[in-house]
Design a protein that fits this description.
- The complex is a heterodimer of chains A (881) and B (108).
- Chain A is an alpha+beta fold.
- Helices cover 53% and strands 16% of the residues of chain A.
- In chain A, the strands form three sheets. In chain A, strands 1, 2, 3, 4, 5, 6, 7, 8, 9, 10 and 11 form an eleven-stranded mixed sheet that branches. In chain A, strands 14, 15, 16, 17, 18, 19, 20 and 21 form an eight-stranded mixed sheet that branches.
- Chain B has one domain (7-107): Winged helix-like DNA-binding domain superfamily/Winged helix DNA-binding domain (Arc Repressor Mutant, subunit A), CATH 1.10.10.
- The chains are: A alpha+beta (881), B mainly alpha (108).
């Protein structure tokens, strides 16, 4: 940098310092600075940078020293007090404009607070475990079986644990639930089975006692358990001597060895943990666990995955020669927020747009307001008001507006966030580790943006009025003559931009609402009304015998069916929207699968003969089960669903009588006796899988835990006590759990979609409302401004229609351009919503035309009212003022 | 006892005690006799000069006829009051040093 450059830059910097010095000594100060700088150059770049820094602070400090003395500071305080009173009076005298501005800020800030609090909790805030970025989720996948996640097979895991190098540790968990019975009654509790080092990997320390030891995680080790903090508080009254006590799970006593803190209740709300006690030597284990690993410091996910695949290689060589199942990794957090990613980005984009609309709106109304006040400013200057004082007055006024809007926005945002989180809490959609607290950083951001807009745009025109020469301002604004075309253009552009963004949001919201309606109209494959569902688990300790289990379910359903008010009752192992039991089958007369040929996994369910009537599942061909099916010495039978029939016999009309068998050389053939209507087992939006039903008698070993479905004539909820009574008569130690109506379960499965569709719909509505308010506010101000012009036009013979056209025409055309370009942008960006749209086209003509009509109607009405007022003015009165 | 003088004011007064100078020359002077430890940054320098002029301890010399080319430079001179202030401050500091020395001698 040459001396001349340095001089130029320092001269600019001088503006940081007090004005008096700048006016009197600018050149000399530059000389003095260059002198210091020259000395420093000998000491290198760093010294020169230091010189600039020192010079800057020097100027700023000079400013501080030049501040008025204490005496005049107290005078300033008095003046600011009067500014506030004056601002308050001004704002109160314009209740409409004030209300409009505050409302816009409120809505924009509130929406941002809500959405960004959600996003921050789900994606930004660290996971509640120490060093959580090193935690990964481990599972296995089998693309050839059409399975993204098979669950982990314990022998595979044992192999990885032995051979993988990139991990500090890895653990497994499986979900489980238990009947907990004590003197206070029977209860169903959620829990997990875990490897001994699971909590060590997560990095969670016990509150009391200890975690499991390796010896406790061996087959036939003594029965020990760890309980959660909430169970410790609820069941044991937070007693410190809980360690060593016993707890009866499924009728078996377990010794408590530790209490885990709340964050350990992960990934679901587990209340009790047991050691996994798996033996890697056992063959043919199921794929059912999930894994968590802690990477060594500095190891990337990709290299860890390579390492894991390498460790997995011996499994390919021995058990899985076709290389069907292979492990994969994913960041732990990503695994639990996958479902929310798209939704969160859509919502964030929507609120960001909303905040822009709100700010544009505030800007437009502020500008219009300031332009309208140029005359006031001119007069005040003319009678001797101090310019600085005037600026401060405006600053106070705008700051008050911003503060009001911010306060109301924060209150509303907090309230809306609580409302939202509470409303979805029951459905257990949001992960349990997430605590949706009000985030102050986000609040500060939203308030900052809104306040900056209000101050900037409130001030800029005022600056113009105050700075410009007085005579010009007075002339310009004197008797309410029309504002300059440039000013008007700025205003209409702002309004047009608002309508453009509103159009984008409106179309986005409309598409999602339409998609939601489509999803709701999907046939679930069963009748959700008048059906009560609950689950019962038969503990092995007292129901170890197959016949005993079968007898229990038979007598339970018999009793239910004969109870008045019950139309049908049945049991099933996996009711819709719950568990999964997958297997592979051979089809009779079909050659065995070649290696590499894909074989879709089939969903298996075990049901009794009453289930289909109770659930309201339709029969497509053949027959349903009767009481004899599955009994000893009867031929094995199965009912398949339509997708199964289509997948395995694509060219056959009648599949009844065909035979299938479990994969394996000597498994017996099972005859298809019926085809049931497809049930959307995994959720309305999920694709169908082939599925089948076995009679309960054939699969008694899988009938330990069943869901009971009761079709009632009356309100299903009202039947709960009766059902509980019947179960208690049979066995008082058995708790009923997951008690719910089929209708509510179905609604809960759609809750996520309902929530974000609803939120986006609200944002679209808000954007429209804001745009409407902005357009109305701006046109009203413009009309007020043009009073004199309109008077002259009328005096010269213009008719009401001409006036209205003149007043509204310009802004209406601008809004039209805004809406059309907004619709175009919506069509282009709509595809980004992807799966959220559930097949609704971003060009959906109905949504686009509704949006166009609504926005144009809004534009017309926003312009119509002020235009009409203009046309009705009395020309004589307007010219006299 | 008079209130202590701001250090950079004292330095400026000392510099002007050696003759009339303009701002830049004062800054160089101060740097030199503080052995480079004290840098009078521009705003501090000219702010102090303004303050000292307001206090009546120095005076700005208008249109002083010097052979120097820099006629736009403002020259400053020490007033009688300024010299008195400088002397008072020097005495105050000398007394202070004397006191400190005697105390430390008594302790050792």
């Amino acid at each position: 940098m040459t001396d001349a450059d340095a001089r130029r830059w320092y001269r600019r910097l001088l503006h940081l310092g007090p004005r008096r010095l700048r006016d009197r000594h600018a050149d000399a100060m530059c000389d003095a600075f260059l002198d210091v700088r020259r000395d420093a150059r000998a000491d290198g770049r760093l010294a020169v940078a230091g010189v600039w820094m020192h010079a800057t602070t020097d100027l700023l400090r000079a400013h501080w020293r030049a501040r008025p003395s204490r005496h005049s500071r107290s005078r300033t305080a008095i003046m600011i007090g009067s500014d506030i009173r004056l601002a308050f009076r001004t704002l109160r005298h314009q209740p409409f404009a004030t209300g409009l501005l505050v409302l816009m800020l409120t809505l924009g800030i509130a929406a941002n607070v809500v959405v960004f609090s959600l996003v921050s909790e789900l994606f930004i805030k660290p996971f509640p475990f120490p060093d959580s970025t090193r935690l990964v989720y481990i599972n296995e996948k089998a693309p050839r079986w059409n399975l993204d996640e098979t669950g982990i097979n314990y022998p595979d895991f044992a192999q990885w644990r032995k051979a993988a190098r990139a991990f500090e540790g890895m653990g497994l968990w499986g979900s489980a639930s238990f009947n907990l019975s004590d003197d206070r009654g029977a209860e169903r509790v959620e829990g997990g089975t875990i490897t001994f080092d699971y909590f060590t990997v997560l990095g969670v320390k016990p509150l009391l006692g200890r975690t499991f030891t390796e010896a406790e995680d061996q087959p036939k080790a003594p029965d020990v358990a760890i309980v959660s903090e909430s169970m410790w508080r609820d069941r044991f009254g937070a007693a410190t001597d809980v360690v060593g006590k016993t707890i009866r799970l499924n009728g078996v006593p377990f010794q408590i060895v530790g209490v885990m803190p709340k964050i350990a209740e992960f990934p679901s709300r587990a209340a009790v943990w047991l050691p996994l006690k798996e033996d890697p030597a056992t063959t043919n284990q199921s794929y059912s666990y999930s894994g968590v690993g802690r990477l060594k410091p500095g190891v990337s996910i990709d290299s860890a995955e390579q390492d894991l695949l390498l460790a997995h290689a011996p499994v390919f060589d021995t058990r899985d020669k076709e290389r069907v199942v292979s492990p994969f990794l994913r960041p732990l957090r990503a695994n639990f927020v996958r479902d929310f990613r798209l939704m969160a980005s859509a919502l964030s984009a929507a609120v960001a747009l909303l905040l822009i609309v709100a700010c544009a709106n505030v800007a437009a109304v502020m500008l219009a307001r300031a332009i309208a006040r140029r005359r006031e400013m001119g007069i005040r200057l003319a009678i001797g008001a101090n310019r600085a004082r005037l600026m401060r007055q405006l600053l106070v006024e705008n700051a008050m507006l911003a503060a009001l809007g911010a306060a109301a926005g924060l209150v509303l945002g907090r309230w809306a966030l609580h409302l939202l989180v509470d409303s979805v809490a029951d459905a257990q959609i949001l992960p349990s580790w997430a605590t949706f607290n009000f985030d102050w950083r986000i609040a500060a951001f939203a308030v900052g943006v809104a306040a900056a807009t209000a101050l900037l745009f409130g001030w800029a025109p005022a600056l113009h009025a105050v700075r410009g020469n007085l005579r010009g301002a007075m002339n310009d604004a004197s008797s309410g003559s029309t504002i300059s075309p440039r000013g008007r253009k700025t205003l209409t552009t702002l309004v047009a931009a608002e309508f453009m963004i509103a159009a984008v949001l409106f179309v986005g919201g409309g598409l999602l609402v339409r998609a939601f309606i489509n999803v709701r109209h999907i046939d679930p494959g069963y009748r959700a009304d008048h059906a009560l569902m609950f689950s019962i688990a038969l503990p092995r300790a007292s129901y170890g015998d197959d016949a005993k289990r079968l007898a229990f379910w038979q007598s339970l359903t018999e009793r239910l069916r004969t109870t008045p008010g019950v139309e049908a009752a049945g049991v099933v192992s996996c009711p819709p929207l719950s568990c999964h039991w997958g297997n592979f089958y051979r089809i009779e007369g079909r050659p065995p699968l070649k290696p590499g040929e894909s074989n879709p996994v089939v969903l298996g369910r075990v049901a009794d003969h009453g289930y289909f009537a109770a659930m309201g599942i339709r029969l497509e061909a053949g027959r349903f089960f009767d009481q004899r099916d599955g009994a000893d010495k009867t031929p094995p039978v199965v009912i398949v669903n339509e997708t199964f029939a289509r997948t395995f016999w694509p060219d056959q009309n009648n599949v009844v009588g065909k035979r299938i068998a479990f994969n394996g050389p000597d498994s017996p053939w099972i005859t298809v006796i019926g085809v049931a209507h497809d049930v959307k087992h995994y959720g309305l939006e999920r694709p169908m899988r082939p599925g089948l039903y076995f009679p309960i008698g054939l699969m008694t070993e899988r009938a330990g835990t069943m869901a009971v479905v009761v079709r009632t004539t009356g309100e299903p909820d009202a039947f709960t006590p009766t059902a509980r009574g019947i179960v208690t008569q049979l066995d008082p130690t058995l708790p009923l759990y997951r008690i719910n109506t089929a209708e509510r379960r179905l609604a809960a499965s759609m809750q996520t979609r309902a929530t974000y569709s609803w939120m986006l719909g609200v944002f679209a509505g808000l954007a429209l409302l804001l745009a409407l308010g902005g357009a109305y506010g701006v046109t009203s101000y413009l009309v007020t401004q043009r009073t004199r012009e309109i008077g002259i036009r009328m005096a010269l013979g213009a008719r009401a229609n001409d006036i209205m056209r003149a007043v509204a025409g310009g802004s209406f055309a601008a809004i039209g351009v805004g809406v059309v370009s907004g619709l175009g942008a919506a069509v282009l960006t709509g595809g980004l919503l992807g799966d959220l749209l559930f097949g609704v086209s971003p060009r959906d003509p109905m949504i686009l035309s509704i949006a166009a009509l609504t926005l144009f109607a809004a534009a017309v009405s926003a312009n119509w009212i002020p235009a009409r007022r203009a046309a009705r003015m009395n020309p004589v009165a307007t010219l006299k003022t | 006892m008079t209130a202590p003088l701001k250090t950079h004011w004292y330095y400026i007064l000392m510099s002007l005690a050696g003759g009339d100078r303009h701002g830049l020359a004062i800054a160089r002077d101060v740097k030199q006799f503080s052995a480079g430890r004290v840098t009078l940054w521009p705003a501090t320098l000219y702010g102090s000069l303004e303050d000292l002029a307001d206090a009546g301890w120095i005076a700005e010399l208008a249109d002083r006829d010097l052979p120097d080319e820099s006629d736009r430079k403002k020259f400053y001179t020490l007033t009688r009051a300024g010299r008195a202030t400088l002397d008072a401050e020097t005495r105050r500091l000398a007394d202070l040093v004397k006191l400190a020395r005697s105390l430390s001698r008594r302790q050792t």
